[in-house]
Amino acid sequence: MATKINDTTELAIPLKNLVGLVAFTAISVYAYTGITERLTFLRHDLDLVKEDVLESEEWINNFSPPPEVQATVLRVRELELKIKELEVKLQKKE
Fold it and tell me: What is the Cα–Cα distance from 66 to 55, expressed in whole angstroms?
């Protein structure tokens, strides 16, 4: 004969088991919340790093030295060429 379950049905469960189930549920919820929070933090941190990388990449791609630096580089190059010419002339005289 099947037992019918209704609002007057009594169920006996040992207190030790009930406390264990409640503790397991509480620990599971706490762990899930902690893992979710950590993942959210890491995702946010990754987004910030990606933004920094994109800004740096844009700066690198758009970089051009100031005119003073460009002029100095040209003057140094001219001086290098003159020094080389003088070295060649000096070697010819020897």
Answer: 20
Q: What DSSP line would sit under 3-51, residue for residue?
A: PPP-TT------HHHHHHHHHHHHHHHHHHHHHHHHHHHHHHHHHHHHH
* This prediction's pTM: 0.53
The CA distances from residue 64 to 51, 60, 69, in Å, are 22, 9, 10
Instruction: Look at residues 65, 84, 88, 87 and name the one whose alpha carbon lies nearest to residue 76.
Output: 84
Return contacts of 80-88, CB within 8 angstroms, 24+ apart: none
With a CB cutoff of 8 Å and minimum separation 6, the contacts of 42 are none
Q: What is the pLDDT of residues 20-30, one digit of tens each?
A: 999 999 999 99
What is each CA distance from 26 to 8, 16, 32, 66, in whole angstroms?
29, 15, 10, 63
42: which 2 tokens? 């890491």
